[in-house]
């Protein structure tokens, strides 16, 4: 694709880097997924006495794995056309509209999710984000990868 008439300067569509939200899926697995399935941009691990959390930011979303001695859950947002295993897939939703779900796991562990897609102006988004993430833990999650500047 070229920019302007007669221009030889190439312009890359944003969609080549990251799919539209409507083209994403949310999935939950009761097992770890191999990192080779994903184009990973950043990784952070948080270890506590009784669990480990691994957060991977990918070109198309994220892969979050929470595990302890008894339970392993992996949450994924990725392109709908990405081939992922079906074995032990517990939840799957297109990222459109609003979805809420919960899952009782072994040994008293429970998983809850809620996602909502809305269109809004940039200023409204920034204001909402700052008001919605008041806790220290949420703030840590929102800044743990900041700044991600460009792609490798």
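^ Assign residues to that structure.
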């Amino acid at each position: 694709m070229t920019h302007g008439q007669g221009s030889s300067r190439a312009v890359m569509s944003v969609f080549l880097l990251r799919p539209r939200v409507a083209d994403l899926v949310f999935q939950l697995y009761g097992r770890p997924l191999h990192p080779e399935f994903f184009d990973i941009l950043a990784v952070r691990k948080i270890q506590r006495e009784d669990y480990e959390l691994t957060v991977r930011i990918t070109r198309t979303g994220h892969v979050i794995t929470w595990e302890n001695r008894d339970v392993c859950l992996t949450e994924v947002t990725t392109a709908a056309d990405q081939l992922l295993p079906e074995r032990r897939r517990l939840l799957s939703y297109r990222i459109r509209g609003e979805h809420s779900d919960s899952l009782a796991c072994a040994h008293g562990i429970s998983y809850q999710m809620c996602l909502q897609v809305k269109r809004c102006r940039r200023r409204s988004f920034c204001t909402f984000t700052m008001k919605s993430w008041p806790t220290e833990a949420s703030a840590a999650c929102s800044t743990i990868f900041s700044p991600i500047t460009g792609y490798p």
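The radius of gyration is 18 Å.
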